[in-house]
Amino acid sequence: MGRKAIICECSSNGTFLIDDCVDLGLEPVVIYPPIPDESDSLIGEIRKSSEAAIAGRAEIMRVTDMREVAARLDGCDVACVMAGSEYGVPFADELAGLLGLPGNDPSTTRDRTEKLHMHRALERAGLRHIRTAPIASDDDMRAFWKGSPVIVKPSRSGGTVGFHLCRTLDECVAAYRSVRDSSDWAGGRDSEPIAQDYIEGREYIVNTLSRDGVHRITDMWVYHKQNVGIGMAYDCAMSVTDPSEEENAVADYAVEVLRATEMEQGPAHIEIKCDGEGPVLIEINARPMGGAFSKASLDRCLGHHITDLALRSAVDPSFIHTLPEGIPRVRDFILKVMIVHQDRTVDADTMCEFVRGFRSFNAIKTPLPKGARVPYGKTENLEMSPGSVELIQTDEGSALEDFALLSNIELRLPDLVYGSEAADRGEPPGIREPSGNTAWIDDDGLHVPAGPTERLEVYTWSMDLQKFYRELFRGIDIVPSGGEVVVDRRVEGMVPYGRKGVYTLMMVAGLDFEIAQPEEPIVAAKR
Description:
Blueprint: E1 4-8, H1 16-23, E2 27-32, H2 42-54, E3 59-62, H3 66-72, E4 78-83, H4 89-99, H5 110-113, H6 115-124, E5 132-134, H7 138-144, E6 150-154, E7 164-166, H8 169-181, E8 193-197, E9 202-211, E10 214-228, E11 231-239, H9 245-260, E12 266-275, E13 278-285, H10 295-302, H11 307-315, E14 333-337, E15 344-347, H12 348-355, E16 361-365, E17 373-376, E18 388-392, H13 398-412, H14 414-418, E19 438-442, E20 445-447, E21 455-458, H15 465-478, E22 484-487, H16 498-508, E23 512-513, E24 522-525
Parallel strand pairs: 1-2, 1-4, 2-3, 19-21, 21-22
Antiparallel strand pairs: 5-8, 6-7, 6-8, 9-10, 9-12, 10-11, 11-14, 12-13, 14-18, 15-17, 16-18, 19-20, 22-24, 23-24
Helix pairs in contact: 3-4, 12-15
């Protein structure tokens, strides 16, 4: 029997801990605590997919309470107890205490898991906080209203689920009733509605690691969300690579938040906004950062993937002192969360092939299966996004430029991203015989000459859009710097938005071009 690492509610990026345990020679044991309604709740859905991902790689215990777990582990060599997701935080606190292992005080767990209590903890510590109140009636809501925008949400939630941005009193009351009458993320009714003043400003993510009250920042991100009606849609997260004065102030404030909420052990994911008055906490989560980041991409850009540092710190109290103080330097990394701005059909294959054309593209993650073409509602929270795209810096400015271009396209030319029915293509183009060092794309696909490729000609007429994207970007990739890409004008009939759409594809691929006359082909140059 080997040394065990206990992971409470292992999901999202918490699943990275399974491989981390193996790398350190530990046996991972995943604890799944009870859920009020596992069959019909957000936590239940997340658990289902996560359990499938870790099946066969870890021992799994389904339990009713932590005392049962402690009894079953009696006599075992347990190295540490960690929270593998937000839902597992209170159970990890309790179990660590029962086993006599380093952990956070269960009596202050609510200061790290419930938004109402964490802001009260900041107030007690004399730190800037947001005016927050529990709402138990329409009258409570009216009493809280001061004429400026208000956030109404459950005190415990995740992924902006249950989040309402309200600009009128009527909206506030309606939002309170919606939260009150809805099941929480675990399928129960334990999370009380709260109201908070809405803070305008830049939003940051600060990921931290603590051991015995010593705190380090592992990475930091600028976050952005878009207001969509009464909801919020995540837009992107950008790594902080060259900290500004404001960002250093945010980092210092984050450490004070850790102290105020008595976060003594383990990783934390802290959301902070910064306005004219300085930084203020949105919420603290006493667990690793979740989201759509891949482990390989985090390793590439940060030099770690957060959970590996957290596990090493959990088993070695001296490890925390090997990490640098302040905000570490990392590579440019943008996670673009896709947003559907209006109800429409989303073609999963077209979306995936389209984003692969960007110069800084690294990976795409989507909940849609390959070949899916499904109706999609307007994105109003993280769960309603059709996917997320990783953009990693490849040359000066490419990641940021690609993010701006992709954001503009999904808003203004969404058929390019998500697919559309083909327009009337008219008569097919005349076929020209390519010669010499020319590659070409016709209705059969990409054809590459035996020798070096110096030019790409595109004259396909009836190819599926997702296949066209794949062949076009493959073809552009083999053209050397300074080479030409020539697109026959008839191709415009199969591309959404016609000539504008073709020019947009040239921009996605980073090509240089001049606007041609309508009857002329589009000629672009590879940078």
